Amino acid sequence: MSEPILQVANLHVDFQTYGGVVQAVRGVSFDVCAGQTLAIVGESGCGKSVTVQSLMGLIPMPPGRIHQGSAHLRGHDILASKIIDGQDIRGSQISMIFQDPMTSLNPTMNIGSQIAETLEVHKGYSKSDAFARAIELLDMSKIPEAAKRAKQYPFEFSGGMLQRAMIAMAIACEPAILVADEPTTALDVTIQAQILDLLGDLQQETGMAIILITHDLGVVARMADEVMVMYAGEVVERGGVDDIFYRSGHPYTQGLRLAMPTNNQDTEANQTLVAIDGSPPDLFNPPRGCAYHPRCPYAMQVCAEQAPPTRTLGADHQAQCWLHHEMAGALPDGLVSASKVGQ
Questions:
Q1: Do the beta carbons of residue 1 and residue 204 sit within 8 Å?
Q2: Class of domain 4-224
Q3: Would you kindly state where each structural domain of the chain is located, as residue ranges?
Q4: Which end is more exposed in the chain, N or C (fewer Cβ atoms within 10 Å of the end residue's Cβ)?
């Protein structure tokens, strides 16, 4: 793996509200390398989108606040300054595909002009050159009759075509990192597959890194190289996609897998989905110990009293769980210890 192009360390983000301070992101660290796809997964409200949006300056401050941590894009501290070589990193160095393309595009501008505007602002293109390039980008995004479609408005596009237009806009400035926030949520299964294939093809052509934010573990299995599992604003497990799916080290990761439908006829898991009991904790006042312990079927007394340390389970595979402590005894079925990795 090449040197990381984005390095985030101990990021803390909170929100000041009338009810108190919401600790939305609590000590998140990760690296992303060129050509790599990092998937961030977890339940709604676990801090996935806030983590990335805070790096891009998309969190209103106040009420939001980054009060601890660092983030470096190719050595540049993007928390201190989001300007590199006179350009805002948003759109040029890091681009984002938002969750709902229906509300992410301006209904009063045609599609080509919206893509061209990005090139005019960040690359200094003339209007005619930018529009011509917009047509090329729509064609790269596999929109048929790109020249005709560039002159149409968002209401004339289907959901899948709008998502392709968003991708064309996101890759216009050839960013180093593309953030895809639930890029297939509102699409049917066939279109989802086409969008994922398109992202994979563009990544191979350009070498950009992708940060994929999703609830869908099927998308993760198809796209990701590495997976970061978040719960209550913290990273509870991180590893390669095979580690997460076949060698899970945290009960929460195991719970997410058991709640996922499967078409494997050789297992009983396809008969009944196993829900995770309970609800995520109140981030106004997070638990003192492991945030997952009130819902964890294997919780011990220490889980409620002390935050678990990060345990290395294998190469590039870590989990935060007291079950991996040498005094915890035998691990429950389905969880892998450091001693079993590679066996």
A1: no
A2: alpha beta
A3: 4-224, 230-340
A4: C
